[in-house]
Specification:
296 residues; alpha+beta; Ribosomal Protein S5, domain 2; Alpha-Beta Plaits; four-stranded antiparallel β-sheet; 9 helices; 30% helix; binds adenosine-5'-triphosphate
């Protein structure tokens, strides 16, 4: 172990698709999306320490479900960055992942881990990369990885790589997953209508109620196809609605759903009630990072 270099840490926030419209499909099969996305202060935690050899370890509630071999998106990000800087001497590192986000659950855990690890590696290795250099470099790891670099509220368009940052306030939120992993491809296969209406024009978002008002004119087009595969998604949404969420919707391709509440207290109360009723579900009260907040 090399001494003297401090370890680096970064939150890998959950990515929440507040709205997700499927607006078309390219000839190569890729779906065209329009999505308003925010990131929560609840997430995984990635750490990096200098070491004799590069390795990855995981702790946390979902550690046993995540692969630790070269298929892990953190190691894939490491290898991608290393291959982008072949002439640089890049020290080996010990990477640690605190896995708090459920796997294959529509809140971008792996994508966010890859983005967080890349930021730490670029800093540790002294690579002169800004966020806007790093984001496109990481696209080969997945369409959702670039947006996780800045982890600020945004609208993603195209296949997810065209990013427009938008102003959003902090939103009190509850995340709920019924404990059923759901891979993305079968959800898109179950989606019948691919040319849905685009997102309505954005309005000025000052309060949580402004955001809820706009969201009520929007959808997640993957919610019905996902619920046809995992009916428990409908139970989760019903629970969030019965706890008076201002909006209750599925994120990404599911199965995690979110509720937006008017206050942190309401969100915490709802989370406690739902967790008591459904001890096997994953439930977390959190809030989104506002546009002007920096990822801790
Ligand atoms: P998205 O919202 O982008 O669809 P997701 O939440 O559905 O993401 P992930 O949790 O990122 O999906 O997992 C997708 C797959 O990636 C899983 O099958 C998992 O085995 C693999 N994977 C690789 N690295 C990671 C990681 N660091 N964390 C979670 N899953 C990972």
């Amino acid at each position: 172990m090399t001494h003297g270099s401090p370890s680096l840490h970064r939150l890998a926030p959950a990515k929440v698709n507040l709205a997700l419209h499927v607006v078309g499909q390219r000839a190569d099969g890729y779906h065209l999306l329009e999505s308003l996305v925010a990131f929560t202060r609840f997430g995984d935690r990635v750490s990096l320490m200098p070491a004799e050899a590069t390795s990855l370890s995981a702790t946390g509630p979902f550690a046993s479900e995540v692969p630790l071999d070269s298929s892990n998106l953190i190691l894939r990000a490491h290898d991608l960055l290393a291959s982008a800087f072949p002439s640089q001497k890049l020290e080996p590192v010990l990477l640690s992942l605190e896995k708090n986000l459920p796997i294959a659950s529509g809140i971008g855990g792996g994508s966010s881990d890859a983005a967080a690890a890349s930021i730490l590696l670029a800093r540790h290795w002294g690579l002169q990369l800004t966020e806007s250099d790093l984001a496109p470099l990481l696209l080969p790891l997945g369409a959702d990885v670039p947006m996780c670099v800045a982890a600020r509220p945004l609208i993603a368009r195209g296949t997810g790589e065209e990013l427009e940052y938008v102003r959003l306030p902090r939103l009190p939120m509850v995340l709920v997953n019924p404990g059923v992993p759901l891979a993305t491809p079968p959800v898109f296969r179950a989606l019948q209508k691919k040319d849905n209406a685009p997102l309505p024009p954005l309005s000025a978002f000052i309060t949580t109620a402004d955001v809820i008002g706009w969201l009520s004119e929007t959808r997640n087009d993957l919610e019905a196809p996902a619920a046809s595969l995992v009916p428990a998604i409908n139970d989760v949404l019903a629970e969030l609605r019965s706890e008076s969420a201002g909006i209750a919707r599925m994120s990404g391709s599911g199965a995690t759903c979110f509720g937006i509440f008017l206050s942190d207290e309401e969100a915490e109360r709802a989370a406690t009630t739902i967790a008591e009723r459904h001890p096997s579900w994953f439930v977390a009260a959190t809030s989104t990072l506002a546009s002007d907040e920096i990822v801790p």
